[in-house]
Design a protein that fits this description.
Blueprint (H helix, E strand, L loop, with lengths): L1 E5 L4 H12 L6 E5 L8 E4 L2 E4 L3 H7 L3 E4 L3 H13 L3 E4 L15 H4 L9 E3 L3 H17 L1 E10 L6 H12 L29 H13 L6 E8 L6 E9 L5 H9 L4 E3 L11 H4 L5 E8 L6 E8 L3 H17 L4
Parallel strand pairs: 1-2, 1-5, 5-6, 6-7, 8-9, 11-12
Antiparallel strand pairs: 3-4, 8-10, 10-13, 12-13
Length: 329
């Protein structure tokens, strides 16, 4: 099994490397791929130094799988070229997510839609992944009508520059700004760029990707995305209205029985999800389960996940594992 990581020197690329090692992913040859300025650098994997190569060199090597985390424009240009030589691309950017000919996959929910003909597979947005992980089993049972979600997103979702901005501000140092305002001791209701409708791209990803992953365009979704000064882990306050009524005990049991979900919901011991607990873990953590008393069939929940792991790198690797296990590559 020959595997390429495109964007290996980036924040998510680095986490992908760690996850491949942690999960003992079956890789016989690993190609680490980055921009021309990084070619020749060495990155350690399983105690061995591997030299970074260029994208054209990687294409010539014809890897079986290419895990992409190098930005939308890079993916739009190069993913089809990998696909042309027979490589299956799993892309972590937004480039292919809403392409009608591409699958948008969270393995626990819809990996069974994949086939050998899928040569470019889209990995959903980090905030979408953790939300649909918590909602998919409930949608099957009670059928979702409407979702109102507010996100509280880590600076790591923006990238290295944003993490450095926050760390510099904590230390009182001058430095480059990833955001138009300070992030330390602040909350910025502005994730990604604003669109004509007044929502940000991040907010619209939650709308569009949720409908696609759950295969239900009738689900109404509205979102507000906020950047907060945490280093790892996105949090979401989700209000979800169902067509059918539920009881909290049944909701808790359904979520407890779902792979990849951990329930933290004991008010007597102040147990609820927080980024500090989710950081470095692959599960999606769910708590503060309670009925919305203001209207029928409506649930409030609090959902937290490590945005660089299940929200990005882990989900990508899990898709690759599914492909290998089911002989789809």
């Amino acid at each position: 099994m020959k595997v390429a990581i495109v964007g290996a020197t980036g924040l998510v690329g680095n986490v992908m490397l760690n996850i491949l090692e942690e999960r003992n992913f079956p890789v016989d040859e690993l190609l680490l791929v980055a921009s021309e300025r990084s070619v020749g650098k060495k990155i350690k994997f399983k105690g061995k130094d591997i030299e970074v190569i260029s994208i054209p060199t990687a294409i010539e090597a014809k890897p079986d799988i290419a895990l992409f985390s190098a930005g939308g424009s890079t993916s739009l240009e190069w993913a089809p070229k990998f696909a042309e030589v027979g490589t299956t691309v799993i892309d972590n950017s937004s480039a292919w997510r809403m392409d009608g000919s591409k699958k948008l996959v969270v393995p626990e929910i819809n990996a069974n839609e994949l086939s050998k003909t899928d040569k470019i597979i889209a990995n959903p947005n980090c905030s979408t992944i953790q939300m649909v992980m918590a909602l998919a089993p409930l949608h099957k049972k009670f059928k979702i009508k409407r979702i109102v979600v507010s996100t509280y997103q880590s600076v790591s979702g923006t990238g290295v520059k944003a993490v450095e901005q926050m760390e510099n501000e904590i230390l009182g140092k001058e430095g480059d700004m990833a955001y138009p305002y300070p992030i330390h001791k602040n909350a910025i209701p502005h994730c990604d760029v604003f669109e004509e409708n007044g929502y940000t791209k991040e907010e619209m990803k939650l709308v569009n990707e949720t409908q696609k992953i759950l295969s239900d365009p009738s689900i109404a979704v509205t979102a507000t995305a906020v950047r907060i000064p945490t280093a790892g882990g996105h949090s979401e306050a989700i209000n979800v209205e169902f067509e059918n009524d539920f009881n909290i005990a049944e909701v808790r049991q359904l979520l407890s029985d779902t792979d990849g979900i951990t329930i933290q919901d004991n008010l007597e011991t102040n147990s609820y999800p927080m980024p500090m607990y989710a950081h470095g873990k692959d599960d999606v953590f769910v708590g503060r389960l309670r009925r919305d008393g203001s209207q029928p069939n409506t649930l409030n929940m609090w959902v937290v996940s490590d945005n660089l792991r299940k929200g990005a790198a882990t989900n990508t690797v899990q898709i690759a594992e599914y492909l290998i296990k089911n002989a789809l590559v």
